[in-house]
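Lab meeting tomorrow. Look over both lines:
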Amino acid sequence: MTAIQRSRSHTGQASRADDAPRRVLIGTDTYPPDVNGCGYFTHRLATGLAARGNDVHVVCASADGEPRIEYRDGVTLHRLRSAPVLVHPTMRTAVPLGVTGHVARLIDRLAPHVVHAQSHFTISRATIRCGRRSGTPVVLTNHFMPDNLFAHAYVPERLHQVVGSLAWRDMVAVAHEADYVTTPTERAAQLLAGKGFTRPIEAVSCGIDLRRFQPRPDERAAARAFFGLPDRTTMLFVGRLDVEKRIDELVRALPRVLNRQDVQLALAGTGQRERELRELAEALGVADRVHFLGFVPDADLPLTYVAADLFAIGSVAELQSIATLEAMSTGLPVVAADALALPHLVRPGRNGYLYPPGDVAALTERLLQVLESPERRAALGAASREIAAQHDHERSLDRFEQIYADVRPIRPGAQSRRRVVVGLPQTRRRTAMAA
């Protein structure tokens, strides 16, 4: 019997012949049309696995509130009833009532070979626990950072440490229920271990599609025209315009950069700080040099990087940063905050530079180091492409498929002999509880 020929026996794990597709159930609390790194990664993972012949199912929140089953890009989407997130009007969340029972019935009907959760929130939490109770191997990838929640939940700054500590404690408790845990980077793995997770953690890059994001310097002027940008040297940021992204530092640096270079700043994305950033640009006298591109559809996203000469990011809450990888894959030099996982992508002097978060003067000098020398800019950009090649999403898919093949339940079956497994037939309940 090979690593992927499994027998469910008393754990209920479905048998699989060598030529049968592996059935994967992905549980996620964010999925397109949501706009965020975790949602985009989950979409790439699901569609990439499906393209390789796996039978992929995703359980996620409905985009409009009504539950349904959808078939997109080779993936079966099980959309659960949802409601708007009050503190984040562009997102929806699954209505908690009934989620656990629905996921349990889904696992019972599909008999997946593995379940892969993408967070520790409502749907993902239910997927982990129902997978555990059924004896199905459970993989968890952590994309969580409390900093990404503070602004959306309007948590006062004086409470950040307490709320962050409680949030990490909850995340770690859920993670200990999984059989295998991954994070996008080594820095993210170290962070999780430092918060109390005591089992091994593997860093598996979220990956980047190197074919979609390629250097196209000859198309730079046309790409700028596509977005209505003047044809001048362009610094770019792509992502949510929210507090943890620290975009105001880029705007504050712009007047200083303009003293020595004729540049503009393009911001692709939407978020809670857009109005504040517009007002800041106006107050600093650079409103005509800060261009808000708004939401860029996925089909047009590669063009945003083609239009730029340099990618800049001041975020202090990145566990990897897909946008930075996309920029690097397009051959852009990067100036980034020296925080969390960004130093794993930016090699100072090789493909860009780092600066201390909050130090606008240092940021200005790093930007000018890139902007003032076209030759250096070209060399840094070429190195970015080389480094990005190490994050080819095909390699990430290879690794996740191997993890799925090798993972085994740490404690097969239910958590308690007396606990009823919600939504399972009576015979399966007895089996799971007896394990």
Summary: The chain has two domains: 9-207+393-425, 217-391. Residues 1-15, 413-435 have pLDDT under 50 and may be disordered. The first strand starts at residue 23 and ends at 27.
